[in-house]
Amino acid sequence: MSWREELGQAKRIVVKVGTSTLTYANGKVNLQRIENLVREMADLHNRGVEVLLVSSGAVGVGANRMGFKKIPRTMPGKQALAAIGQGALMHLYEKFFAEYDKTVAQVLLTRGDLDERLRYLNATNALLAILGMEVIPVINENDTVVVEELKFGDNDTLSAMVAGLVDANLLIILSDVDGLYDCDPRSNSQAALLSEVTEINDAMEDNSRTRGSSFASGGMLTKLKAARICMASGVPMVIANSGEKDVIRRVVDGDNLGTLFVPREEKMHARKKWIAFGTLTQGSVMIDNGAQQALLNRGKSLLPSGVVGVDGEFERGAVIAVCSADGREIARGMVNYSSEEIRLIAGKKSTEIEKILDGKDYDEVIHRNNLWVNG
Ligand code: GLU
Q1: Ordered domains of the chain (ranges, CATH)
Q2: Predicted confidence (pLDDT) at residue 212 exceeds the cutoff of 80
């Protein structure tokens, strides 16, 4: 069975809709589009598929409500509009989903909610409980209260994180573009739509640096970032044009629509997903070439002997970045030792740890079970 055909077996689907899908170019709400998408999602739900909706549009709808032609530049201005628009947006979803006898639940998340392992599990459990009640979660970033450093920043990333959080079988990102092209279709009429992508390369990212509409925050680059998360966490992802008739049903039925990002074969363990994408790193270690080979090619743990530098202050149990000698982040992992301890044992053999630290709980700085290698 091809990857496209397999999408029909998905039992849990995340659908992400962007501001450009929900509003017209003049900023006003596109009621017909929202209604069509809601009908499709309600129908999917009737088929017995669990549906989660990640919806942008709070700031855009808020701006429209207030008669603004542009989004204010200041943070409090945007936060106020998000508070105004989020309620209005939920009202629309409540109303349209109720027509099909569906109940929705508003879930507002920030990165901080996923940063600690326990909070990550709490968010997962809350979403699963909502799904268990046959209710459709409508998820957005909690724009009104989030501080800059704890922002997802765009809902493409948020939707990929949500898909990983609930172990979804498919993420559909609906946008105002048909999918990923081999070059920018706005400047090159020969551009060809890619139907399937198995690897994201630098050229794709370079071609995707332009932004969407003036009310939206994403663009193709954030969608590629989302695709990387999905591919690594084992979730197929499709980017398709929200203007296509019956777009959701057709993607799920395996039609050759949009671009499918094929996930890696093996499923990622839940704890590794959190290490890789859920939490923010609290410091880093630099490792030598030998250790780099052991991690990347042989799936080994990180031993103190391979560590050549430590950056930042962190406790045991923190998640940190592992960098190669040339400063590239090649892995992330949860440490068995604090930054202070690692500074003392860096470059030393595991057998020497006991003497240096006056006791030894672990041989490894990061055990391979707690290590996510970015490959
Ligand atoms: N959370 C933002 C909003 O609701 C949108 C972020 C995005 O467009 O990706 O307006």
Answers
A1: 3-272 (3.40.1160.10), 281-373 (2.30.130.10)
A2: no
